[in-house]
Amino acid sequence: MQRDSNAVILKLEGRVTGPWVEELRRAWISSTKVADGELIEVELSGVSFVDAKGRDLLLRMQREKVDLKGASGFLRQLLKDGNEKVKQSSRDVKIRRVQ
Q1: CA dihedral in degrees (24, 27, 33, 37; nearest 10)?
Q2: pLDDT tens-digit map of 38-59
Q3: Which of 13, 43, 58, 77 is the most buried (most CB within 10 A)?
Q4: pLDDT tens, position by position, 6-19
Q5: Domain positions in the chain
């Protein structure tokens, strides 16, 4: 975790899989306390792979206004696809409630 004048920065490298997903979650929670309302950025340029749980955590972080930066084309697409699945799931729930 780093801090600059505008944000708290988490720099990720390698694979966000298995136990590293939980480690990222803990680091994120810790960074929210340090940030005290300031922006939190996650630098993803060093990430080579993300599994489904890692993707879900990154999407959750993004929904909580964490700024995800430097993602590869593959990772950007993975996050985009995940966002579309979440939106579709939300629409399905609304449709079921109306019926």
Answers
A1: -50
A2: 899 999 999 999 999 999 999 9
A3: 58
A4: 889 999 999 999 99
A5: 2-98
Grouping H, G, I as helix, E, B as strand and the rest as coil, residue 96 is helix
Q: Write out the two tokens for 73.
A: 């084309």
Enumerate residues 6+ apart whose C-beta is below 8 A from 33. Answer: none
Q: What is the DSSP letter of 70?
A: S
pLDDT (0 to 100) of residue 97? 52
pLDDT tens digits, one per residue of 87-96: 555 455 455 5
CA angle 49, 53, 56 (to 5 degrees): 100
Q: What is the CA radius of gyration of the chain?
A: 15
What class does CATH assign to 2-98?
A: alpha beta
Distance CA 96, CA 21 (A): 32
